[in-house]
């Protein structure tokens, strides 16, 4: 029996879920460090900070160098990050193995796809466009799309609405804990399913399930 996902909205995080963006994010952070005479930091040392945003990456690099900056100085360095990153957003970043085929299969099954990310919307659209993924998504919502952003629940529910979906027929897929904080403001919070690499199963409302083998790098669909 073919999988029927008609009316289901599947919302993906971007960095670390759909696309391995770590190399270009680290390169942009190292560009900033170079501007103030600091040596590059190994991407592996910055990788744990990627999920916390580019400012956290810069703060971590400064800490590793033993350099202390005031919050205002970090703000100025952070602003230097974005022009370089925007111009080099897809130099080394690539979709994880199997992602394009997975997205196509979900669309063929009738699902509506969206992206909910704390990356700025313009950068998110640029990245997805350069990787030829953007046309697969009914909505792309970034950190600045709404008045709130993750972990605020409104970022996710707003993305679902933007895609034309309903929370009770939606699932959120992320590379870390994808549940909003706090979860209680979501209308009927149990109606939205969540998945992370700790589980290889997406439970979609109405008891349908999608099983992904090797969630983080190899995505397959029965």
Question: Could you walk me through the main structural features you see in this protein, from its secondary elements to its overall organization?
Answer:
The structure is a single chain. This protein has seven helices and nine strands; from the N terminus they run ββααααβαβαβαββββ. It is of the alpha/beta class and 222 residues long. The chain folds into two domains: 9-20 and 95-211, HAD superfamily/HAD-like (Rossmann fold); 22-87. The strands form three sheets. The chain has a five-stranded parallel sheet with strand order 5-4-1-6-7, sandwiched between helices. Strand 4 (112-116), helix 6 and strand 5 form a beta-alpha-beta unit. Helix 1 packs across helix 3 and helix 1 packs across helix 4 (71-87). It is elongated, with a radius of gyration of 18 Å. The relative contact order is 0.17.
